[in-house]
Amino acid sequence: MKRAALLAVDGGGSKTDVALLKRDGTVLGAARVSGEVDGRTWATWGHLEDEQLLRVHAAIDQAASRAGLDPERTPIADVGSFCLAGADLPADDRRLLKWMRANAWVEEPILRNDTFAVLRAGTDRSWGVAVVCGFGTNCSGVAPNGRVARFPAIGPISGDWGGANELGALAAWHAFRSEDGRGPKTAFQRSVPAYFGLRTPRQLMEAVYFDRIPEVRLAELAPLVFSEAKQGDPVARELLDRQADEIVLMATTAIRRLRMRDLDVEVVLGGGIFRSRDARFFSRIRNGLVDFAPSATVHRLTHPPIIGAALIGLDALHATKAARATARASLTHDRLTRHTRARKEA
Fold first, then answer.
1. First CA to last CA distance, the chain
2. For residue 41, what are the β-bridge partners?
């Protein structure tokens, strides 16, 4: 085999998925590489760091080997569809395109932010809105005429709020204030330090301060916010309500900027925060969106976003509808994690 038709990449801070496909949508090889600290996945704000680019490189090498291709014999594909968290500003795009061309993986690289992979994976249309809420938050929208609305999404400095990083840090913040009396009593006072094997918020504060626990690990507390809210903790519920409202705000802002308020716009939700089954959380998001755009529909993406990266590439290749259906059916979580599970079982 000389080369694949398509190299699809969905890369972020916590994991990178890569697939090599034929023009008919057949997957030749796929790989998933996770970023970890102390055995736990994590991410950072802002542009892709060198460590994350190394993970992309490693995932491409693994996928190429599984496809029977020599990753050193480039190009390994005609077209490359790279959907990367951190491709936020024009300077990011220039840096990343230069890096792609230097590695010479493909003849024609296509670069998008990872929100576009979520959007393309979540709808068969060429337009709509995607909101990603994982470590942080981001949103993009595409109008029927092709106009695009985006946010810088590089953290608090660009006006962003929410995601696991924010929810986890605020859970710890409320835990400490519950302990010392500056804030309302909350179940976080016990459950937050207990997650790290500690007894009190003060012990956690000292562990973070003295770098015994990396501060970035506070993002791991996000599922705890959902569980405490489910148990009726008002502080946890308030955090989730604020997160839901921020998601609505990003999506409705994109809809307004693209003049899609009167259209039957599809809003696709992707990212780790949306893995929750909290009915009140999702109801608040849906109600907020429909109040603004009555014909809008909301979808939670349950399939891997790498599907969207693949479809963007297949679109560029003018692939058939059958090819796109084949790619959708083949790029499953099971396919991407099969080798990882096999290593762990061994």
1. 30
2. 36
**Nearest residue to 10 (alpha-carbon basis) of 138, 98, 115, 131:** 115
Phi and psi, residue 102, nearest 5°: -65, -35
Question: Torsion angle, CA of 307/262/279/160, rounded to 10 degrees?
Answer: 70
CA separation for the pair 201, 142 (Å, rounded): 44
With respect to residue 43, please indicate whether it lies within any of the assigned structural domains: yes
Our count of domains for the chain comes to 1
Token digits of residue 228: 């405490």
Domain-located, residue 123 = no
Greater pLDDT, 73 or 42: 73
Tokens of 193: 């330090």
- What CATH number does residue 78 fall under? 3.30.420.40
Query: 131 has which bridge partners?
Result: 139, 269
Domain that holds residue 324: 4-113+304-345
In-domain check, residue 92: yes
Residues 80-119 have pLDDT tens digits of: 999 998 888 899 999 999 999 999 999 999 999 999 999 9
Which amino acid is located at 323 in the chain?
A
| Burial class (CB within 10 angstroms; exposed 0-12, middle 13-18, buried 19+) of 113 | buried
Residue 287 has pLDDT above 80, yes or no: yes
Output the six-digit token pair for 255: 């809809």
Amino acid at residue number 86 = G
315 assigned to some structural domain? yes
As a whole number of angstroms, the distance between CA 343 and CA 346 comes to 5
The pLDDT value given to residue 11: 87
3-state secondary structure of 1: coil
Q: Is the pTM for the entire model greater than 0.85?
A: yes
pLDDT tens sequence across 28-55: 999 999 865 444 444 443 445 667 788 8
Both tokens assigned to 41: 């996945």
